Amino acid sequence: MNKNNVCSNYVDPEYTWKVLQDFKGGNALFTQPATPIKCGGAPQKIMYLADDYFRRTGVRDQSQIIFATPGSVIFATEPFKTTLMEVVDRKDIQLRFFHKLTRIDGANKKAYYTITQDADEPEKILYNSKDSGIKELSKTEIEIPYEMLHLAPPQSAPDFVKRSKIAFQDGPNKGWINVDIHTLQHPEYQNVFALGDAAALPTAKTGAAIRKQAPVLVHNLMRVMEHQLPVDQYQGYSSCPIVTGYGKMLLCEFDYTNERDSDPLLTKIFDTSKELYSMWILKKYGLPFMYWNMMLKGRA
Ligand SMILES: Cc1cc2nc3c(=O)[nH]c(=O)nc-3n(C[C@H](O)[C@H](O)[C@H](O)COP(=O)(O)OP(=O)(O)OC[C@H]3O[C@@H](n4cnc5c(N)ncnc54)[C@H](O)[C@@H]3O)c2cc1C
Predict the structure, then answer these.
(1) CB 42 less than 6 A from any atom of ligand 1
(2) Ligand 1 in contact with 109 (CB < 6 A)?
(3) Quick check: is 68 in a domain?
(4) Same domain for 11 and 141?
(5) Of 150, 182, 213, which closes a domain?
(6) 39 secondary structure, DSSP code
(7) pLDDT digits (tens, 9 = 90+) for 124-164
(8) Quick check: is 7 catalytic?
(9) Is the pLDDT of residue 119 over 90?
């Protein structure tokens, strides 16, 4: 990390910027781990911005942009998925699904992936695939050479949470705090509630999600302190503001069922499933204002 053109906005965005500025062509590989991550859209956002930047600097013609992800789709919720696939087509990005990053050879600029889906069904794995020097080492392992690699590191709850009895001790949620996904109350220790990234909630880990979790948690906690049952229910709302280029963004809002859950007021005025300049302005100016002045003060 942070050398040999392996960069991550999760660790050092300044180095990502340097790598983008120095990029002169070849494979620009973008990837993400198989663990849950903060803001699942972030590894895509930087890829779309990089594409835009490479077009401005005149190196896009000499480069291949590849997105290799352990996931099976670019985005789970319609109509955002359709818009993002249009973006992928327009930008000529190669998608590789079911790709689990296992190893990076930094000195030789090669990334190694295990393919987790049956290779006999290539249409599920590859989209817009091109010859980019990718080598099949076996039916389940491939080598992708790169000139630059942007990654999101594998993520977990902090160690003190993982070691605690409030966390799941095993299973797919191991290490994340065990809470009822609707009431946010621990099933065993009823005076314990959790929200945010460390909680085992099957939705995207975002600040936007916490904004909706906080009032539910507070209300339920106050009820429990008054010896009543928790009644408020969080439905898994989360939001990914996906920047698709300079001055373009769609605002993906969804819930536990992966159904669209867009703000009714905002969608009266804007079609937030399309790339909009207005949403870019919202992200650049509106959301920081809302965060500092409203969310942190419990007013929004
Ligand atoms: C690149 C990136 C882009 C993102 N984009 C968006 C976005 O556009 N929209 C959005 O809504 N969200 C976004 N997010 C996600 C958002 O930042 C997180 O969901 C949110 O910050 C989670 O808040 P949290 O309080 O649960 O956890 P955190 O913000 O991780 O806070 C946990 C805190 O606990 C502290 N801590 C850890 N261990 C200890 C210890 N032993 N003792 C004391 N303190 C400790 C940590 O230092 C940290 O400050 C993004 C995240 C990243 C990384």
Answers:
(1) yes
(2) no
(3) yes
(4) yes
(5) 150
(6) S
(7) 999 999 999 999 999 899 999 999 999 999 999 999 999 99
(8) no
(9) no
Q: Decide if 164 is inside a domain.
A: no
Instruction: Provide the pLDDT for residue 161.
Output: 97
Cα of 134 vs centre of ligand 1, distance in Å, is: 35
In the chain, the percentage of residues whose pLDDT exceeds 70 is 100
Query: What range does the domain containing 54 cover?
Result: 6-150
- For residue 163, give Cα distances in angstroms to 37, 60, 142, 182, 219: 20, 47, 35, 24, 28
Residue 37 belongs to some domain of the structure = yes
CATH number at residue 76: 3.50.50.60
pTM of the predicted protein model? 0.95
Which tokens hold the place of 52?
A: 């835009």
Of the candidates 109, 135, 150, which is a domain's last residue? 150
The answer to whether 183 touches 232, Cβ cutoff 8 Å, is yes
Angle at 42 between CA 196 and CA 168, to 5 degrees: 35
User: Is there a domain that residue 170 lies in?
Assistant: no
Q: State the pLDDT at residue 256.
A: 98
Q: Does ligand 1 come within 6 angstroms of the Cβ of 237?
A: no
Do both 140 and 249 map to the same domain? Answer: no
pLDDT tens, position by position, 208-245: 999 999 999 999 999 999 999 999 999 999 999 999 99
At residue 31, the 3 state secondary structure works out as strand
